[in-house]
Write a structure and sequence with these properties.
- By secondary structure, the chain is of the alpha/beta class.
- Helix content is 29%, strand content 27%.
- The chain has 2 domains: 2-121 and 294-324, Quinone Oxidoreductase, Chain A, domain 1; 140-263, NAD(P)-binding Rossmann-like Domain (Rossmann fold), CATH 3.40.50.720.
- It has 9 helices and 16 strands.
- The longest helix has 21 residues, at 115-135.
- It is globular and about 60 Å long.
- The model has no long low-confidence stretch (mean pLDDT 95).
- Its EC number is 1.6.5.5.
- Residues 12-323 form the Enoyl reductase (ER) domain.
- Keywords: NADP, Oxidoreductase.
């Protein structure tokens, strides 16, 4: 099967993304041949491209997509031709019109979930699921700090947290992003460009701080995140949008109130087939219930992935972004 995909041969800037022809064979044992209808753009894609998370080159790019099954390989029992499926893990290579994929990484889509919405929510939505239900299980009545509240993860997290009865303090970088986050249920907005985040958090919590901070920004927000925590609070540092956090002495956590720090990743929370299906099912449930609306902020042609990367890194995007084959 003749198709096209984005490949990289050198680490570097968005200019390294190349639109290339590919020839696909029939699926082998345990594999499925998919035709993508939409591909999700995620910040981790920029880490793979830049070399922050080094790849063995040449390589494909992308971890999330949705589409339809064209053909199944030997031993595949859970899927058949025509099934609508999505994924958010497995071998890199989602930036493609079609691809071969291990069946074990796929999830069948319910009738109520369309393929574009699935591609916009699988990675970010399952990230939110493990953040708020497993890395720290939030309880109704608690207050949390959520950085990048107008981003893809932020908008899903805010809605899900509000559904659980949680008060959300969100950080944003502009008035427009504040309005977007507020429209999705964020209770308090802090403009990190103009305000002292930790001081505002203390003021909003009667001086105590929050029990948990969800921080996908990294270097620029790390200190403020620690200073926003209540004693024995947990910093969930799950991303590096502003760069990796600098090395620090563990004694800092003790000095600031016996704090906890975790650096999780989605792959470790959906490492088994059972965990993957459970996480996806929890996400599908809140979306079908209307508690979480999946907003697609912008779309690009798949061949224009380089421009999508530029806009993402310049923080010109809001919500989820799709690449369309």
């Amino acid at each position: 099967m003749q198709t096209h995909a984005i490949g990289i041969h050198m680490h570097g800037g968005p200019e390294q993304l190349q639109w290339e022809p590919r020839e696909l064979s029939s699926p082998g044992p345990g594999e499925v041949l998919l035709r993508h209808s939409a591909v999700g753009l995620n910040y981790i894609d920029t880490y793979h491209r830049s070399g922050l998370y080094p790849l063995s080159l040449p390589s494909g790019l992308g971890t999330e997509a949705a589409g339809q099954v064209l053909e199944v390989g030997e031993g595949v029992r859970d899927f058949r031709r025509g099934d609508r499926v999505a994924y958010a893990s497995g071998p890199l290579g989602a930036y493609a019109e079609a691809r071969l994929m291990p069946a074990a990484h796929l999830v069948k889509l319910p009738d109520a979930i369309d393929e574009r919405s699935a591609a916009a929510m699988m990675l970010q939505g399952m990230t939110v699921e493990y953040l708020i239900r497993r890395s720290y299980r939030v309880q109704a009545g608690e207050t949390v700090l959520l950085h990048a509240a107008a981003g893809g993860v932020g908008l899903i997290a805010t809605q899900w947290l509000k559904y659980l009865g949680v008060t959300v303090i969100g950080t944003v970088g502009s008035a427009a992003k504040a309005e977007l986050a507020r429209a999705h249920g964020c209770d308090h907005l802090i403009d990190y460009r103009r305000e002292n985040v930790a001081e505002r958090v203390r003021a909003l919590t009667g001086g105590r701080g929050v029990p948990v901070v969800y921080d996908g920004v990294g270097r620029d927000t790390f200190a403020a995140s620690l200073d926003s925590l209540a004693p024995r609070g947990l910093l969930v540092s799950f991303g590096n949008a502003s760069g990796a956090v600098d090395a620090f002495a563990p004694g800092l956590l003790a000095a600031k109130g016996s704090l906890y720090l975790t650096r999780p990743r989605l792959g470790d929370y959906i490492a088994t087939r059972e965990e993957l299906l459970a996480s996806a099912a929890a996400l599908f449930e809140v979306v079908r219930a209307g508690a979480v609306r999946i907003g697609i902020g912008q779309t690009y042609a798949l061949r224009d992935a380089a421009q999508a990367h530029r806009d993402l890194e310049a923080r010109r995007t809001t919500g989820s972004t799709l690449l369309l084959p």
